[in-house]
Specification:
Elements lengths: L7 H4 L4 H16 L6 E2 L8 E2 L10 E9 L3 H8 L5 H13 L5 E11 L4 H18 L2 E9 L9 E12 L14 E6 L8 H10 L7 E2 L4 E2 H5 L7 H10 L4 E6 L4 H7 L7 E5 L7 H9 L15 E7 L4 H10 L4 E6 L11 E2 L8 E5 L4
Parallel strand pairs: 4-5, 11-15
Antiparallel strand pairs: 1-2, 3-6, 4-6, 7-12, 7-13, 8-9, 10-12, 14-15
Helix pairs in contact: 2-5, 4-5
Length: 367
């Protein structure tokens, strides 16, 4: 009886059977994100989404976003904990869509790895699926690619893309902002997925291993630094429904920090001084700054320092919108007011990420 010839692809380092097993392990989590508008189930070449509901919009605009989670994955790999990195991915991708007032529809993901370990891939995708559930997003497809020789055995990276919808007359942005509007800060759950190259540099420089106990946090360093990204999409969508004309623009505080990201959603000729004294940065930022002998002010262009989102709202609605967000479990407070008169002397951040918007700087001392 002839023996089965060896699979040359397996000899090259690619295990297609492991990839199939990973899909089986993640199927139930992915299916939980599917409503009746998702057709075709899991495993097709392309995800299908029934767009009939778009007819309900007067002038439907599709919003799209794509991103990854950066070097935060290195910490997940270091302590072999992969069940939260997917939520971080959803935060980076889907929470960008709500910035323009859009409701997310669906998302796809991509995982590149040196070797497929089915349980690990399934953990990552379960985290993505959980984040999709928490943002009302269907996870309609994805891809896992094995790259032996390019990535190390335990290395991987994740990325995703999402699509949402908003009616043209409900798009949020700088054009809605007026002088006198109030800027509200929405608390973050930690560093989210930004500034991890600096975090890793500080931790490594201090001779700390991610498995070491961190007395300040009551966990290991790795567990503390893998705190999942807070997801803002559904609370913000509910806010937009409850106060349809109160919110003028939103800013997701990701790479670049508070000033740069707020400047992107302000009109030219306006400015905001963000008052540091209105909040105290989360302990994780203070501990890391002390560990790296850094002034908190020096990290403002890298870390969110406890502010994950900013909302520019009408002055008369500021208290009510802040209360509504607090009722959603998100601490919210006023950090500034939009001005359009002569700008105070001093350095402001303007023109961030190619957007020639307003001007922002942080002033005062942290509480």
């Amino acid at each position: 009886m002839a023996s089965t010839p060896p699979n040359p692809y397996t000899a090259a380092g690619v295990d297609t059977a492991a990839g199939d097993l990973a899909v089986e392990l993640m199927k139930s989590a992915v299916r939980r994100t599917h409503g009746p508008e998702v057709l075709g189930g899991v495993g097709g070449f392309a995800g299908l989404f029934d767009a009939s509901a778009l007819r309900e919009y007067a002038k439907p605009l599709l919003a799209t976003s794509t991103d990854g989670v950066g070097t935060k994955v290195a910490i997940a790999q270091a302590i072999d904990k992969h069940d939260t990195i997917g939520q971080d991915l959803v935060g980076m991708v889907v929470d960008d869509i709500v910035v323009v007032g859009a409701k997310p529809l669906f998302m796809t993901d991509y995982i590149a790895c040196g070797k497929v370990f089915p349980e690990r891939i399934a953990d990552i995708v379960r985290g993505i699926a959980l984040g999709c559930e928490q943002t009302g997003t269907a996870l309609v497809g994805g891809e896992t690619a094995e790259h032996p020789g390019l990535l190390g055995l335990n290395d991987y990276d994740v990325a995703g893309a999402a699509t949402g919808i908003v009616d043209a007359d409900r798009v949020l942005g700088a054009e809605r902002v007026r002088a006198g509007d109030v800027v509200l800060a929405l608390a973050s759950s930690g560093p989210h997925s930004n500034g991890y190259s600096l975090i890793r540099h500080v931790v490594t420089g201090a001779g700390i291993s991610y498995g070491d106990h961190a007395a300040d946090f009551g966990t290991t360093w790795g567990e503390a630094l893998l705190e999942p990204t807070r997801l803002y999409t559904l609370p913000l969508l509910r806010l937009l429904t409850q106060f349809p004309d109160a919110v003028h623009s939103l800013s997701h505080v990701t790479g670049g920090g508070i000033a740069a990201n707020l400047a992107r959603v302000l009109p030219q000729g306006t400015w905001v001084e963000v008052d540091r004294s209105t909040w105290s940065p989360s302990p994780v930022f203070r501990v890391l700054a002390d560990l790296g002998s850094l002034e908190l002010e020096a990290t403002e262009g890298t870390w969110n320092l406890g502010v994950g989102f900013l909302a520019v709202v009408s002055a008369e609605s500021a208290a009510a919108t802040a209360s509504a967000l607090a009722a959603e479990g998100i601490a919210t407070w006023q950090v500034g007011v939009v001005g359009d008169g002569p700008r105070p002397a001093g350095d402001f951040e303007q023109g961030a990420k190619g957007v020639d918007g307003g001007a922002v700087r942080l002033v005062g001392a942290y509480a």
